[in-house]
Design a protein that fits this description.
Layout: E1 5-8, H1 18-27, E2 32-38, H2 50-58, E3 64-70, H3 78-84, E4 88-92, H4 99-108, E5 112-117, E6 135-139, H5 155-167, E7 173-177, H6 184-191, E8 195-198, H7 200-203, H8 208-216
Parallel strand pairs: 1-8, 2-3, 3-4, 4-5, 5-6, 6-7, 7-8
Bound molecules: D-xylitol-5-phosphate and zinc ion.
Amino acid sequence: MLPPLLLPSLLAGDHANLAASAAQVEQLGLQWLHVDIMDGHFVPNLTFGPEVLAALRRAGCKLSLDTHLMLDEPMRYVETFARAGANLISIHVEPAYDHRAVLKKIRELGCQNGIVLNPATPASAIERLLPFVDLVLVMTVQPGFGGQAFRHDLLPKIKQIDEWRQQHHHTFRLEVDGGVDLTTGPLCRAAGADAFVAGSAFFKAPDKAAFAAAVAKW
Ligand code: DX5
Ligand code: ZN
């Protein structure tokens, strides 16, 4: 089992001072920051564009950026996000496009790739892609907004994907995103997850170091 990785979500950070929010994560010794990119089409909300990643880099942010593209046409943007400073780029399986080609393109751009499933999307939708990914992201809320309640009914999906991973000796990380906190995270861990995106739970935690230390023990 891979060690647990905590990825604070910048969506819950201070949008008037994103560099300061990223710096809080970096000061704790964490390696990753999760950055949610929404286009107002695939999800009914708007967040950050590539310029935000570039600005974080200019501000000295050394964190690895886990870039979650909630976009109808991710192929139009992967190159821009890679050049802006993304280290991992994940794309949703739901829109119709050549997923294999975009996953390959992300690696050619020097980034790790990831495939994401919405709550209503069955695990079977990504099964054929598992040999070609560095990360599978199981959404545990409907994407679009932070601060939503964790969906317990998605735990079996995490378990199924972990079982396939073990059966076929895949090495991808299995990430969960949405409503993950100190109560729901361990349930995901027990189901096989090893990467934990936390927005509200992390940025609202009175003691962020204690939060990170707790996740490290999962
Ligand atoms: C939701 C985003 C999440 C969000 C999670 O669409 O993909 O990354 O920031 O926020 P919390 O942890 O508050 O549910
Ligand atoms: Zn996300």
